[in-house]
Amino acid sequence: MKKRSFWFLLLxxxxxxxxxxxxxxxxxxxxxxxxxxxxxxxxxxxxKKDKLTGRVLYKVTxxxxxxxxxxxxxxxxxxxxxxxxxxxxxxxxxxxxxxxxIDMRSMVNPDMLAAYQNMxxxxxxxxxxxxSTLTTGQKLKDGTISIDVLDKQSGQPLTSMVMTITGRxxxxxxxxxxxxxxxxxxxxxxxxxxxxxxxxxxxxxxRMQTIEYFVPGVGLVRTETYxxxxxxxxxxxxxxxx
Length: 242
Prior knowledge:
The protein is mainly β and about 240 residues long.
């Protein structure tokens, strides 16, 4: 259960949280792809041997603006390696003061909770953000989400998981090619840790590292996931249209 839960958490972190484009103007949200109605984009996932493991399709279905803030609803579809739909759902992103803000609770992959459908699940999470400008050496805010699973009748805690994202550091820009095009991207490093408790027993923490290639005005165009310096999986931006 621990390994399965980690990979679903990793999926929502890699495939959802970091697709938050940034604007070139600190107070202007108009250039954000995720805040343009009907924008569509696709992420393709591969394992370390370049084998296709799945796709994620996104579409902006509505955009609402108010003074100082813009919020969009995005519908996502997760497909397996054969193109079969495994799950779909909605989440929101917002722009405030030129930064994208994403509630981590709103983006947990529903598949992760399938095993707990007859139980009570409580989630609390931070907002992950990307500032309006990125510079080499910049430290970005950490993020944490906790998930508690309880017995519906007794309220007794059964399982708890805490995913922590730390060490988010902006590196140099690099030229990178993906199916969606050629980009000059910021290289961002971060650490992931999953701590699990089952029936009160603390399990060994699972730790991984990710590298993201982030393009201002576009978003994440490639991610790489490592454990102990060895590549486990990667994702690339296949297309984007609006």
